[in-house]
Task: inverse folding
């Protein structure tokens, strides 16, 4: 009876954590989180505005980046503290949704945390603070709705002027701010060429070419991709076409090198010859199938070897291998073709065309 009334023995607390792990909780941890976020804000604070300063950042791979774009800097900062990493996520979300104002949202979040710090030190419950923030956000959204301007798309000229103003505003704080008159026209032209319902910005490709001035930038009304690795025979291929059929492939058109650990045992020279002939037959069958479609432009995401390059050159066909996925997607979108992973059964429906 006496044993039952005894207090149960307290079990020793076992914490399975790595040595050196920060186990602080409660108010000290909240204040630590706020301080970490404010440290990140101080890093990007000076980049804001038309007179914002550029930051020079060297990453772990010793790559140097000079930028005053909030989102770029936030990506390059190797932030480890979990609460401060949330600020990085805020900047990325803003960049993905709006494409501008990345520094502003980080600084706004930092200022709100700075105001809250005193309340946390006084012992106010975080739930009460969050309740206040929710109320404030509702009021802010209501006020924004009052300030909102409706966009009239019926007048093309006015709509374009509005787009150019928006483009110029977001360029103010960027490195191309001095050339915004030149670039705002180019940007608006590019966006207006997109499908206006989808507005898939990935269909706008940016190709960087070293050297030259900013004004040397041009907008290509079509699809441009970097010259791919070329073999002998590339020079003999025609480079201009009228209404050509285009085929996009994900097929390797070259003789494959044997794998290091592959082993083929043959007893007679004729057997070895049969293996070689089979290889050549496979690639020539593929090439003949492509030529039979009537395509004049052959693009592939995988390599197109010297044999295929020469074969196409003899038949006045242009080919390019190792075209990147993004460029291939743009070609497909613009010309109406579909990327094929085999050359058997190619029909006119799979091909694209352009003027």
Result:
């Amino acid at each position: 009876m006496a044993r039952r009334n005894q207090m149960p023995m307290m079990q020793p607390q076992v914490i399975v954590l790595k040595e050196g792990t920060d186990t602080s909780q409660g108010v000290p941890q909240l204040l630590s989180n706020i301080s970490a976020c404010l440290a990140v804000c101080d890093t990007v604070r000076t980049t804001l505005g038309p007179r914002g300063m550029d930051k020079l950042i060297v990453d772990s791979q010793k790559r140097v980046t000079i930028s005053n774009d909030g989102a770029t800097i936030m990506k390059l900062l190797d932030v480890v503290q979990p609460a401060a990493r949330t600020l990085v996520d805020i900047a990325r979300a803003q960049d993905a949704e709006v494409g501008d104002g990345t520094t502003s949202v980080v600084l706004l979040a930092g200022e709100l945390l700075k105001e809250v710090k005193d309340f946390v030190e006084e012992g106010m419950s975080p739930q009460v603070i969050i309740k206040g923030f929710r109320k404030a956000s509702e009021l802010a959204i209501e006020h924004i709705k009052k300030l909102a301007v409706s966009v009239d798309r019926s007048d093309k000229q006015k709509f374009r002027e509005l787009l150019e103003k928006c483009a110029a505003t977001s360029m103010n704080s960027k490195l191309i701010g001095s050339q915004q008159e030149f670039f705002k026209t180019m940007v608006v032209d590019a966006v207006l060429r997109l499908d206006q319902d989808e507005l898939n910005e990935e269909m706008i490709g940016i190709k960087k070419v070293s050297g030259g001035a900013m004004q040397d930038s041009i907008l290509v009304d079509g699809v441009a991709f970097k010259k791919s690795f070329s073999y002998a025979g590339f020079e003999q291929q025609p480079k201009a076409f009228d209404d050509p059929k285009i085929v996009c492939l994900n097929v390797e058109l070259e003789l494959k090198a044997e794998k290091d650990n592959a082993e083929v045992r043959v007893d007679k020279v004729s057997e070895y010859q049969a293996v070689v002939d089979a290889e050549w037959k496979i690639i020539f069958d593929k090439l003949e199938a492509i030529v039979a479609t009537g395509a004049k432009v052959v693009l592939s995401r995988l390599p197109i070897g010297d044999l295929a390059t020469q074969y196409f050159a003899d038949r006045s066909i242009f080919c390019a291998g190792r075209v990147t996925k993004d460029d291939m997607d743009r070609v497909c979108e613009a010309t109406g073709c579909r990327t094929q992973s085999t050359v058997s059964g190619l029909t006119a429906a799979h091909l694209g065309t352009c003027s």
